[in-house]
Specification:
The chain is of the alpha+beta class and about 210 residues long. The protein has 8 helices and 8 strands, in the order αααββαααααββββββ. A 3-stranded antiparallel sheet has the order 4-3-8, with helices on one face. The chain has a 3-stranded antiparallel sheet with strand order 5-6-7, covered by helices on one side. Strands 1-2 form a two-stranded antiparallel sheet. A hairpin with a 5-residue loop joins strand 1 and strand 2.
Length: about 210
């Protein structure tokens, strides 16, 4: 388990830059002192770890060090295969089916031979077909509004018309809902009515609540 954690620390520092021991500890669900011991071990192994002291301090990789993930454990490779094999209705909502197939093929091909075989085997043996309905035109329209950060109107041309700032879509128990950034509410599809799309952009909130 420790070897896996050390690799995660390395990748986090590489991808996110300077991190504090507390940030790394929260990400990896361990104590900060465990992170500090791991950092000592990585330094002893010859990795260019730089530790900065003080209020603006933190841990980072020095000398523009880069690594690449060259292998996964067998169970990790199998789990990755299952993730890639599962059909995600959000992909259809955004019209990204072809792009998803291409991305999956590129990702699988980029894996080392053994990892690729384990992932491909899991993809072939376990097939998850989502039984939720394929995204309809209204879902697709709001998905594009979420991606483009544009205003939409639901229940259009009725007395209950509402201007919303779509910041997210959620699929729960075969029911879609849109997250309105203006009110913070999740509005179910049954309450959308007719939808009118706008080209007017909005600034989303800093954090998107779940």
């Amino acid at each position: 388990m420790r070897a896996s954690r050390l690799l995660q620390i390395l990748l986090l520092l590489q991808n996110r830059g300077r991190q504090t021991s507390v940030q790394l500890a929260e990400e990896l669900e361990v104590a900060p002192r465990t992170i500090l011991r791991d950092v000592d071990a990585m330094t002893e192994a010859g990795l260019p770890i730089v530790v900065h002291q003080g209020n603006q301090g933190g841990i980072e990789l020095g000398f523009n060090y880069r690594t690449r993930l060259t292998g996964l454990a067998r169970d990790e490779a199998q789990a990755l295969g299952l993730i890639l094999a599962a059909q995600n209705p959000m992909i259809a909502a955004l019209g990204l089916e072809q792009a998803a197939r291409q991305a999956r093929a590129k990702l699988v091909e980029s894996l080392p031979d053994t990892t690729r075989r384990h992932s491909a085997d899991a993809m072939a043996r376990f097939v998850l077909v989502e039984d939720t309905p394929v995204a309809n035109d209204r879902v697709r329209a709001l998905a594009k509004a979420v991606a483009a950060r544009t205003v939409a109107r639901i229940r259009f041309a009725t007395q209950a018309e509402q201007v919303i700032h779509p910041i997210g879509l959620k699929l729960d128990a075969a029911c879609w809902s849109v997250h309105d950034g203006a009110t913070g509410l999740h509005i179910p599809e049954a309450d959308w009515g007719r939808i009118n799309m706008s080209s007017q952009r909005f600034e989303p909130p800093d954090a998107v609540p779940r």
